Amino acid sequence: MNGSPASSALRAEPVLRAAGPLSAPTGPLGATLDVDGATSAPAVLRAQRRFADCADPAALAEEVVEQARAAGWARALLLLTVARSRHRELEVLAARGEGAPAPGERTTGAELTRTAPAAVVELVAGDPRAPRLAVWGAPAPGAAALDVLAAAAGAAWCAVRAAAEAERAAAELAGVRQLLSGAVRLAGLGSWSWDAATGRVVLDDRLRAMLGAEPTDPDPDLADWRERVHPDDRGPFTGVEDPVTRVGTSVPYPFRVRCADGSERTFLGTSVPLDAAHPGVVQGLVLDLGAGDRSTGELVRLAQCDSLTGLANRAVLDVRLGEALAAAGPACAVALVLLDLDRFKLVNDTLGHQIGDALLRRTAERLQEAAPAGSTLARLGGDEFVLMVPGVDRPESAVAMARNVIRRLRAPVLLPGLPEPFVCTSSAGVAIGHGGTADELFRSADMALYRAKDAGRDRVAVYDSAMRDDAQARREAEHKVRRALRTDGLRVVWQPIVDLRDERLVAAEALVRLQDPVEGLLEPSAFVETAEDTGLIVDVDTWVLGEVLRQLRRWRGEGNGLQVSFNVSGKTLEHPAFAHRLAHSVESTGAAGSSLLCEVTERTLIDLSSSTRASLGELRSVGARVGLDDFGTGYSSLSYLDRFPLSFLKIDMSFVRPLGTSARAAAVVEALIGLAHAHGMVVTAEGVETREQATMLREMGCDRAQGWLFGRPVDAGRLTAGR
Asked: 188-304 with 477-720: one CATH topology?
């Protein structure tokens, strides 16, 4: 048998897939088995009945191999995959026949192959968790086909396994319920539920005992439940009329309730709608705080307040904000002031967390002094605070209030451990809501806060329609950039740079464009700022660098020695993988690093970190020249020109355009050229559009120029055509 075709087939694939349930009996790799006649229907029915009588997997496994032996096979093994590896590990579930291993022994697919079984079939096709039946020898004439027998066994296996899993799940659920019930009893909690469909409030036995009610007393309806609760505490406790809008909320609240004997007790409760599948059902838990218990105040404080500052926590704020928005209208708005401390992380990093915590507590005290009556103050975490003011009739009053808060927080504060008063400014975003949801109002205030910080901190920004439109435009721009990166929608155009001495083309600047399927080719102003904010600029710069290197290689193959200038964002230079990608790309493309002109901004040099310096160093190590772009538009300080060895400087077009009409502009440009030459840098003037500008720049000693006078951005083929 070792030399049979079945043996060679099994060496190629140790465990074989079975044929479909009702196909002809098959051997390895689907070879048809000769069973000397049609399948015996009575034999299959008998096997199915025997399989159905098996109550567990072990009994079924034994029955499967027994039925295989009854079909005439000399030896049968039922095997289960227990480990997936190169030589798949198999466990013997049951075995029959001479030399068969004992159940529980393990083998591998390779060992099974060496024994050359006549066939290996799956009980459940495609299910790796189901066993496989391996047989040796040949079937008896008229016996049930092996694949039909396996299909019947597979159906029984699925049923037994499903029953076992259901039994295990039921046992686990019962255990969880027992543990939960024990925990509720141990904690002394009572529970209740309210069903909007029936209007009944169902109390459990523990809560009935807490209220002094008899087990036979009828359950109250919602109106009766309200009546028992103290009038001042009914808001949070009975506010369950619209549970759909409050799915997932669970806010602890204290409330006083009248017991059956007329006495009043204080409970701590929490209520929450079950889930979206049961939109009309609310459940709650109740803890008896005990009349006059001195721990009552502390428990309530822990449930409702921020532990550091004593202000309300997010859960309480959400409830009160939801109630305020529900009562708001055109003439009665809700003001939400979201504020945080400027550069608070620096306080923790330099002065320590104890000083930081002291500052947060003092900030909370000042906010309480400034908050108007009826408002809610909350701490969200970290240095984020919220002031919610309901019943605002004029938005201007909310803005004035926020500015007063910022002014108070700006005042010096004495903190323990510091020798002198400390000043920490703050920023605030204000949003006004006449309705809607709390999430919408929070998003609006958060956008306003971002605007306040982006504008320089220590100020108030108010959310308005322009801010909404700007946020929408940023989201759309981000979507365009992501889509362009995913669908190869970026393009590079090339603007010529000439030597001013003879106006010979010596370089080209690679400028990125975005090919939008709706709006066409977009300029960088439409998407680069958003790419910077979202971090996508790293992917954009990496893509542009790849295009630059590929184009350089093409030009070198054509004998063209042009240099290529390209922009690199400060965020890209900060990325730890950029330097490695750069060196690898230069090496893999075969481009000449000396032909690369890397343009960076003044902000990049001012914020020169160790990772940025390393990336700039990597650029220089591959032969690239690093230069300063748009000089004059930023800080333009002489001090940072010496922080990193620069090879060139580009004078911004805002200085070039007035040439010929302003003597002052000419003096400034000439001074900039002299400054750059004194530092050993090549000077390029941007935005040259007239012959007069070019002549004046040449007379001033400017080295290079680019602008519409010498050519607009074009594709690579048009750039070099005719030059």
From this structure: no
Contacts of 218 (CB under 8 A, 6+ apart): none
* Amino acid code (one letter) for 399: V
Given the candidates 3.90.1170.50, 3.40.1190.20, 3.30.450.20, 3.40.50.150, the CATH classification of the domain at 188-304 is: 3.30.450.20
User: What DSSP line would sit under 519-537, residue for residue?
Assistant: TEEEPGGGTHHHHHHHTTH
pLDDT at residue 331 is higher than 80: yes
How would you label 421-452 residue by residue, b for 16+ Cβ within 10 Å and e otherwise? Answer: ebebebbbbbbbbeeeebeebbebbbbbbbbb
| Cβ-Cβ contacts under 8 Å for 646 (sequence gap 6 or more) | 626, 627, 628, 679, 681
Quote the percentage of the chain above a pLDDT of 90.
32
What's the sign of the alpha-carbon dihedral 320, 321, 323, 324?
positive
What CA–CA distance (Å, rounded) separates 389 from 377?
A: 9
Triad 427, 430, 436: Cα angle to 5°: 145
Q: 413: burial class by Cβ within 10 Å (0-12, 13-18, 19+)?
A: middle
Query: Can you tell me the distance from the alpha carbon of 718 to that of 196, in angstroms, rounded to the nearest whole number?
Result: 74
Strands 704-705 and 490-499: antiparallel
**Residue 178 pLDDT grade (very low, low, confident, very high; cuts 50, 70, 90):** low
Q: Phi/psi of residue 487, each to 5°?
A: -115, 20
- Is 0.70 surpassed by the pTM of this model? no
Q: Which amino acid is at 201?
A: V
| pLDDT, position 26 | 37
In CATH, 314-463 is 3.30.70.270: yes
Query: What are phi and psi for residue 595, nearest 5 degrees?
Result: -90, 0
Q: Which residues pair with 221 in a beta bridge?
A: 200
Per-residue burial over 32-41, b = 16 or more CB atoms within 10 Å of its CB, e = otherwise: ebebeeebbe
pLDDT digits (tens, 9 = 90+) for 307-322: 888 888 888 888 888 8
Tell me the CATH architecture of domain 5-164.
2-Layer Sandwich (3.30)
Mean local confidence (pLDDT), 296-316: 74
Per residue in 417-466, pLDDT (tens digit) is 888 999 999 999 999 998 888 888 999 999 999 889 988 889 999 998 88
Closest C-alpha to 565, from 497, 641, 644: 497
Selected from 3.40.50.1220, 3.30.1640.10, 3.40.50.200, 3.20.20.450, the CATH number assigned to the domain covering 477-720 reads 3.20.20.450
Q: Which residues touch 251 (CB under 8 Å, ≥6 apart)?
A: 236, 270, 315, 316, 318, 319
Domain locations in the chain as residue ranges: 5-164, 188-304, 314-463, 477-720
Question: DSSP assignment, residue 637?
Answer: -
At 426, which amino acid appears? S
d(CA 425, CA 197): 53
